[in-house]
Amino acid sequence: MARIAFIGLGNMGGGMAANLAKAGHDVRAFDLSADALDRAKAAGCAPVGSATAAADGAEAIVTMLPAGRHVEAVYAELFAAHVSPATILIDCSTIDVATAKHVAALALANGVTAVDAPVSGGIGAANAGTLTFMVGGTDAGFALAQPILAAMGQAVIHAGANGTGQAAKIANNMLLGATMVATCEAFLLAEKLGLDAQTFYDISSVSSGQSWSMTRYCPVPGVGPDTPADHDYQGGFATALMLKDLKLAAEAAKDADANTPMGAQAADLYQRFADAGQGGLDFSAIIKLLRG
Ligand code: NAD
Predict the structure, then answer these.
(1) Which of 7, 9, 12, 170 to mutate for ligand 1's pocket (most ligand atoms within 8 Å of CB)?
(2) Does the N-terminal or the C-terminal CB of the chain have fewer CB atoms within 10 Å?
(3) Cα–Cα separations (whole angstroms), residue 195 to 201, 219, 287
(4) In this structure, how many other beta carbons lie within 10 angstroms of the beta carbon of residue 14?
(5) Has residue 1 got a pLDDT over 90?
(6) pTM for the whole thing?
(7) Cβ atoms of 34 and 42 closer than 8 Å
């Protein structure tokens, strides 16, 4: 079992660090929040007072932070204090592709291997240890990160070079955002045309319009499996987080000169919904905006 530093014990990181401890790893945990440190302690981790204290002697350093600037700041602090070349840096945060590549290059310049390993799956999957990890990095980096990530998830996939984990994550979530909006539109059109929602679901879920947004995450209450729509759009994947990922996708598309008009349209709609004070609702609640 390894000594692991875990930095960022929020909604996602708290459960992930707990699963590493449950798997028998020696987890040194750090967060700026005292409450998060208390929860990590209760979950079997050893709380420490700084990122560098967590990293001292660690074989792996896992970060689960809000955005690229937080990852850059923590890595700068770690490199200033020296990180052993034997340590693997694993960033599980969702951040922009450019920063993911930049911090990996910075790590290399400091003689350390880094991978980007963002996740698919929300807080429930983080707590249950059923996340999917998309990993960007060298073969050697992937081999070091894989067993650690496997203790927190059900699938660990090597996407390619550094930055491709983040690329996979935001391309996937752009697709999710766009299909959710399209699914909501289709239900509303069917309704206006006099079609019962359940009947439309029964037909479309076995026809060519089928998607995960329809059959696994139906935005209409009372139709399909139990989803946030059945709980007044509470829980699930917040509109604000979907908007964050759509903005990251738009930024990456601009840098790469990729034409993504549907992603841009989805970002615009989620921005309007968040501006209307609905950023805390599950992203399938976008059907409310379309209803007007
Ligand atoms: P969160 O805000 O709940 O947690 C982030 C934690 O990082 C906080 O506890 C904060 O105190 C801590 N932090 C910030 N700066 C720090 C620093 N310098 N040193 C130590 N700790 C610091 O966010 P979250 O929901 O856990 O999300 C974390 C990441 O996972 C984000 O990048 C998010 O986009 C991604 N993500 C979230 C979900 C989700 O459903 N919540 C799903 C997939 C991916």
Answers:
(1) 12
(2) C
(3) 10, 16, 17
(4) 25
(5) no
(6) 0.94
(7) no
